[in-house]
Amino acid sequence: MVKVVRDTMHGFGERPHYEPRELDSIFEKIVTDFLRKKQGEIEFPIQTDDLTTLIEEHVKDLDLYADLTKYGPGVEGVTIFARAGKPRVLISEYVHKHQNRLRTTLTHEFVHVHLHAYLFALLNGQMRFSITIMAIIIIMTTMSIITTSLRSRLTTSRSNGRTRPLLATTSRSWSMPNRNTVSGA
Question: Are 115 and 64 in the same domain?
Answer without folding.
Answer: yes
